[in-house]
Write a structure and sequence with these properties.
With about 110 residues, the chain is mainly beta. The protein is built from one helix and six strands. Strand 3 and strand 4 form a beta hairpin. The longest helix is centred in the C-terminal third of the chain and has 15 residues.
């Protein structure tokens, strides 16, 4: 079973599939959130960082994955996602078969 934690533009996790107005109007989900886009910075191998927008975190067979879009880009990065005491931990998806499965679930959720 696939569970999408952040399918909404506002980043809330109510799974209602709604969006909010860019002028700040409430989305109506009942959650107390401030409608800011969720972002994170990825540290690259060359020592630089890239700011990414979080599209969502979704679950496949008890493993979570995260979909990110680098600022100014239209490409989507998919990573394994785990929570640690000091914050999120992202790992590359090494197996081609696993990557294809994650890509397929991502397309189903976000198309």
């Amino acid at each position: 079973m696939t569970e999408n934690k952040f399918i909404n533009e506002c980043g809330c996790s109510c799974n209602e599939g709604h969006s909010y107005g860019r002028d700040g109007e409430e989305c109506g989900c009942g959650y107390n959130h401030d409608h800011k886009e969720q972002t994170m910075h990825l540290a690259l191998d060359d020592g630089s960082e890239v700011k990414c927008f979080v599209l969502g975190i979704f679950d496949i067979s008890e493993q979570e994955y995260i979909a990110l879009v680098p600022e100014g880009e239209e490409i989507v990065y998919l990573y394994k996602y785990d929570e640690a005491n000091d914050g999120p931990v992202l790992s590359n998806i090494q197996d081609d078969e696993e990557f294809e499965a994650v890509s397929e679930v991502f397309r189903e959720i976000y198309e």
